[in-house]
Amino acid sequence: MRVALYRLWTLRLLGAAAAVVLLGLAGCASTPSKDETLGWSSAKLYAEAKDEMNSGNTDKGVKLYEKLESRYPYGLLAQQALIEIAYGNYKQGERAQALAAADRFLKLYFNNFYIDYVLYLKGLINFNTDQGWFSFLSDQKLYERDQAAAKQSFESFKELVTRFPESKYAPDARQRMRYIVNSLAEYETHVALFYYRRGAYVAAADRAQRAIEHYQDAPATQLALAILVDAYGKLGMTQLRDDAERVLKLNYPQSTYLTEGLPKRDDSFWKLW
To answer: 108-160, pLDDT tens digit by residue?
Structure first.
């Protein structure tokens, strides 16, 4: 009897000991790993982040820059880190995060020496919206992708060349502004053509007129004038038709629209209408 009781007591003791061991192991497993960057100076964080970025480890580099900015928010390195955060996210295709970082920098450090670069970077972030899904499947133009982003990109470049006309980023910004203007004009004329082909001649004339008024020097103005001529003709507005045709002949005497008419339908396969 005593032997049986002793064995039972021993088994219970061993069971309790095992439970304690298991709890200890579970506690060790749930303990978060120590952050190796704790105690690092701002200079060390910056140097390590820069090394990661240079090595192609953009994601890790961005995370280190974010730690630097949060731990040392008032230093010069924090300002530079915020620029790198914007660039790193842009490089990874994280448009929203990149814009957020750029906007925060422009708001907090409006007198910083690198404001022109951040404005240029913000313009690029909105300009290069073709990095998304399925863009590689088609030859999409800027006007076919994101009108709001194109206009925001234009505004950033415009602010850059207005405030910093001698900036080294200004020449490229001006070229991109011209491209955006031409793309937006092309968008308006394609919408006008879309309406025209569906018999919505008033809407077609309105969009074509808008393209002419807002983007006078864009190449797409030629097509916009041709749409005006045909739309007014369909509406029976002969005086307006003749006026539009006169302007078309005066500015584009060799225009194929005068002899061949509006372009035939050429919808890309990815369009849904």
So the answer is: 999 999 999 999 999 999 998 654 433 333 445 544 556 888 999 999 999 99
Closest CA to 188 of 233, 227, 135, 232: 227
Q: How far is CA 40 from the centre of its chain?
A: 33
Contacts by 69-73, CB closer than 8 A, 24 or more apart: 71/42, 71/45, 72/42, 72/45
At what angle are helices 170-197 and 221-234 packed, to 10 degrees? 20
Inter-residue contact 64 to 49 (CB < 8 Å)? yes
Q: Evaluate whether 85 touches 69 at the Cβ level (below 8 Å).
A: yes
Contacts of 108 (CB under 8 A, 6+ apart): 79, 82
Whether residue 53 contacts residue 88, with contact meaning beta carbons closer than 8 Å, is answered with yes
The pLDDT tens digits for 187-231 are 999 999 999 999 999 999 999 999 999 998 899 999 999 999 999
Nearest by Cα to 257 from 224, 234, 218, 235: 224
What is the value of pTM for the model shown?
Answer: 0.76
Contacts 24+ apart (CB under 8 A), 146-152: 147/184, 147/187, 150/126, 150/180, 150/183, 150/184, 151/180, 151/184, 152/126
